[in-house]
Input
Amino acid sequence: MTPITEVEGHRIALSNLDKVLYPATGFTKGEVLHYYATTADALLPHLRDRPLSFLRYPDGPGGQVFFAKNVPPGTPDWVSTAEVPRSEGAARMVVVQDLASLVWAANLVTEFHTPQWVVGAPNIADRIVFDLDPGPPASVVECCEVALWLRERLAADGIEAYAKTSGSKGLHLLAALTPTPSERVTEYAKELAVAAEQAMPRLVVHRMTRSLRPRKVFVDWSQNAARKTTATPYTLRARPEPTVSAPVTWEEVEECRSPGRLGFLATDIAPRLSDHGDLLAPLLDPSTAGRLP
Output
């Protein structure tokens, strides 16, 4: 029998709670749901008003993994949706606004990915993001070195950056912006990526070409394009272990000397929130937003 839970007055059918999704640690679907429910206070503000793209892995990371943007079949009518522009025409997408919707979405077993704009202002970014992706044998250690350079470069333009792990191999840099057309943000992000490569040519590459990336950090500026999305803070990732895209302090970035220092699992997040609160909370405060030069 499928258990039914009530969340904020909405009845949600929860399936396969004992199913092991992360065999490396034995982490079950029930534990995934518990993680999202207990992290909701920090996660929800980063999802609110942003159209959600689903990277689903219902049988765990070793099973079928597929990306979906349209509202899934069977979505309850109490889950918020919004029509958003796409190059191939408008699409209707889920917008997770509350705990009930978060639990419903988590039951689908998904990574949460969102754009740098909100549904009320499509293609107008209120954030800038850099995805620092290391080419082996480079690791998050080298990403931290690049992140520190970008932090200083952004600060020179009056933009304060914050960091989180990607939940995979790399690091994400984010900053709040006054509303700016996504096209302009993308141009600026590319300018900084090129500048980083010029400043650190042995360490950084700004082009996606695979053959250029071994031993270097690819500074992916393209995720600022209006059509692109980035893993949301606190989302679980479809990796062998239940890794999380976790906010980190700049002190942690500065002191990172081995890849394991900046790898966090679902079980690490509650203690980190207790110690630090949401390290990315400033992104939610319009008064902290920087302006592109």
Summary: The mean pLDDT is 95. The longest strand covers residues 124-134. The helical segments are 29-47, 99-106, 140-156, 182-199, 250-255, 266-276. The first helix runs from residue 29 to 47.
